[in-house]
Amino acid sequence: MENQKERVKCLIIGSGPAGYTAAIYASRAGLKPVMYQGLQPGGQLTITNDVENYPGYPQGINGPQMMEDFKQQAERFGADIRYGIATAVDFSGKPHRVTIDEQKEIEADTVIIATGASAKWLGLESEARLNGSGVSACAVCDGFFYRGQEVAIVGAGDTACEEAHYLSNLCSKVYMIVRRDEMRASTIMQNRVKNTPNIEILWNSITDEILGEHGVEGVRLKDTNTGETREIAVKGFFVAIGHEPNSKIFQPYLEHDASGYLKTIPGTSKTNVDGVFACGDVQDNVYRQAVTAAGTGCMAALDAERYLASMEVH
Question: Which cofactor(s) does the record list (predicted)?
Answer without folding.
Answer: FAD
